[in-house]
Design a protein that fits this description.
The chain is α/β, with parallel strands linked by helices. Helix 2 links the parallel strand 2 (47-54) and strand 3.
Length: 723
């Protein structure tokens, strides 16, 4: 390869120069801008020498881009056109794909293109920088080719592994992601490996292109990099990545799957969107949502969605998008009450508010979820209210519109819908678990007495997946108590007691996320007896309205379920013992017994509580009861795990059958192709025989024609002789 050095490219700053290299084509310029903005915004102590490798981008587009940074004194942005270098190196022959464009290979030319630099930071375009890149540049790479963070999830496809082995690579525990590198260009120049890198690149297009090449060729010469410098946020690896680095990320790398600019609701997308230029936001937003893009709605809302928010930055965008970006949604408003968040929740809410006038954001000092919901209720204008936590989401589809239409057409005070449970990572764990189909009466609209003793067992009595007529709540002065948790059920149970028109929608409207560390609802051990205070508030409210005697049996049934649920939710024995002592105090006062209540799930709850009460004075027996309940929880989880495994095996078997059928079809096609080839050969033989036969016939015809002419001449001579 001929000399392709670019001696004209030299460090931009005499002091604290931090060379940062990116590579792009014209299509990625808007996203390049965000990466550059984020790097500059988070580098107060460094002079960023930003070099953008490109090829064939129009000069006007480059001038416009660079002009945006002309006034930034601590950053220099320059484009380096390497079109000639691509031709000279042969990389221009690389057959690019949408997933792996040619620009992904530009970094391989850095040792030759930038002779004035001994070490550079390289970052992909699909990143949001959250820390000073000067600290990354200071990474000691020693005599390694480069420093990089491990790839969180490696491809284990047998064909891929076999292909890598062909190149002598099998060290998958050391395989790194090439999206963030600290490159030792001196080492690359001292031990040239470009030709071998290129050889692998051209064959690796099916897999990971230059990332594979760098791993295979440079193995043994790669220094470790703190994983926080390359937090890989692809859907395929997010769960494992977050378990490794938590929410601390110095560079957010949106690998594979949906990018922030194609799906702003994805987790951690706010880290990217906060660096979008104000002039670009509307265009990128419209580009992301397409026909379903959110837009201002001037109608008086029929539905108000009230969302209390406390340190929910990880999920808030997804929760808001689940409401605002629904197709065919009714006229609605979203009231987001930030309850003194200390993370990025306020910034995320403000960002969405700037995009959609239907979102109203209210901020207050931390007072708890009940107080936040009350503030949202006071600000609401819709005919109906729906409460949604910031770490949950509404289901996609037509359920929201169907719920509103049913509530309005049936003139309901309350409409209960069904719900699902999703894991912390957003995967569905169970469907249709919020509405007990065995309890609602056959009537489409019913009153509380129609449910009898099972009144408060119809749903978990959370405020979620439920539409409340706003006027009904106001007329009855129904408010949420100021409790750290369990604040929902006393309000909902009282509302159900007072409602005169109740309906059910057997569709999944709401998806509840479990396993959220920051969620108050997940922190039962913080205040194990707070549910008892909530129960006391509910019974006092019934008594104040003269309804306690009438609804005491139903309240006892629900209370038993609350006891059982809280016994099962705590993780410390001391808290379990506190609840058990409370059970022993309250259980004898319950008027009902296990065999007297024909309500699903009651009998098991009765047995659990009665067993705990009988063991409350014996520490060893109580410890055994605690262990049994925890074992039961493990069995439930194991059963769910086994169900998932069985489903995966079923899907794997179905896929195997499809692959086998496809292989058979391929074999059949091969046989048909062989038969066709044989037939074609036979036809060709017949054609050649026919040609030969035609030739022979033609010779015979020519001979006969010659004989005919000879005879004609003889007849002619004989005729003349006779004359």
């Amino acid at each position: 390869m001929k000399d392709i050095a670019r001696p004209d490219v030299k460090p931009a700053f005499a002091e604290r120069n931090v060379p940062v290299v990116l590579a792009t084509d014209e299509n990625f310029l808007p996203y390049l801008k965000v990466a550059v903005n984020s790097a500059i915004a988070n580098a107060p102590g460094s002079n960023l020498d930003i070099l953008v490798l490109c090829a064939g981008i129009p000069e006007e587009a480059i001038r416009t881009f660079v002009a945006g940074y002309a006034e930034v004194g601590r950053a220099s942005v320059r484009f380096v056109d390497i079109s000639e270098e691509l031709e000279a190196s042969g990389l221009s022959d690389y057959k690019q794909t949408d997933r792996l464009p040619l620009s992904s290979c530009y970094r391989l030319l850095l040792p030759r293109v930038l002779p004035a630099y001994g070490k550079v930071v390289y970052i992909d375009v699909d990143v949001a920088v959250c820390r000073d890149l000067g600290e990354l540049y200071a990474t000691d790479v020693g005599d390694s080719y480069f420093a990089a963070a491990k790839d969180v999830v490696c491809n284990t496809h047998p064909e891929y592994v076999s292909w890598a082995a062909k190149w002598g690579f099998a060290e998958w525990e050391d395989y790194v992601n090439a999206g963030v590198l600290v490159m030792n260009l001196d080492r690359f120049r001292r031990e040239p490996v470009f030709d071998r890198l290129k050889e692998i690149v051209f064959e690796a297009a099916k897999w990971n292109c230059d990332q594979d090449a760098l791993n295979f060729v440079c193995k043994g010469g790669i220094a470790p990099l703190d994983p926080r410098w390359n937090v890989q946020l692809g859907d395929y690896c997010l769960e494992k990545q977050i378990s490794l680095t938590g929410d601390e990320m110095w560079i957010a790398h949106y690998t594979a799957g949906r990018k922030p600019w194609t799906y702003p609701a994805r987790r951690y997308s706010h880290l990217w969107w906060r660096h979008v230029d104000a002039s670009d936001v509307s265009r990128l937003w419209q580009q992301a949502w397409g026909e379903t893009s959110v837009s201002p709605d001037g109608e008086t809302p029929k539905l108000s969605v009230v969302m209390p928010v406390w340190n929910a930055a990880r999920y808030l965008s997804e929760a808001l998008a689940s409401v605002l970006v629904q197709k065919d949604a009714p006229a609605l408003e979203v009231i987001c009450v930030d309850d003194g968040s200390t993370d990025d929740s306020a910034a995320i809410a403000a960002f969405w508010q700037a995009r959609d006038s239907r979102l109203k954001v209210i901020r207050q000092e931390n007072q708890g979820p009940g107080a936040a919901r009350n503030v949202g209720m006071d600000a609401a204008r819709g005919d109906y209210l729906l409460f949604l936590d910031a770490d949950d989401r509404l289901s996609s589809g037509a359920a929201l519109r169907a719920a509103c239409e049913q509530a309005v057409s049936d003139d309901l005070d309350i409409l209960f819908a069904d719900g699902a449970v999703i894991a912390e990572n957003g995967k569905t764990e169970s469907q249709d678990v919020f509405l007990d189909d065995r309890l609602p009466p056959t009537e489409r609209v019913f009153a509380p007495d129609a449910l009898g003793i099972g009144l408060y067992m119809l749903t978990p009595m959370w405020p979620h997946a439920t539409l409340f007529r706003r006027a009904f709540l106001a007329d009855n002065d129904l408010r949420f108590p100021s409790l750290p948790q369990s604040e929902g059920f006393p309000m909902v149970q009282l509302a159900v007691t007072l409602a005169r028109r109740i309906g059910c929608l057997r569709q999944t409207l709401f998806e509840h996320r479990t396993g959220v560390a920051a969620s108050r609802a997940s922190a039962k051990d913080v205040a194990p007896l707070v549910f008892a205070e909530a129960e006391s508030l509910f019974r006092r409210s019934l008594a104040a309205r003269g309804l306690l005697a009438r609804f005491a049996p139903a309240a006892d049934v629900a209370f038993l379920r609350h006891l059982d649920r809280n016994l099962r939710s705590v993780n410390r024995f001391s808290d379990f013992r506190a609840i058990a002592t409370y059970c022993a105090e309250k259980f004898p006062a319950l008027a009902l017994r296990g065999d007297e209540v024909d309500v699903p799930a009651y009998a098991q709850a009765f047995k659990t509580v009665s067993d705990v009460v009988s063991a409350v004075d014996d520490v060893d027996a109580l410890a055994d009861a605690f262990a049994a309940i925890r074992d039961d929880r493990c069995r439930v989880l194991t059963a769910w795990h086994d169900t998932c495994v069985a489903q995966l095996k079923k899907e794997k078997l179905a896929l195997w059958k499809r692959l086998k059928a496809a292989a058979q079809r391929k074999a059949d096609l091969g046989d048909r192709a062989q038969a066709l080839a044989t037939k074609q050969a036979e036809l060709w033989r017949q054609k050649m025989a026919a040609v030969k036969s035609k030739g022979d016939l033609w010779k015979r015809l020519k001979a006969k024609e010659a004989e005919r002419r000879r005879l004609a001449e003889l007849v002619q001579r004989l005729t003349k002789a006779v004359e």
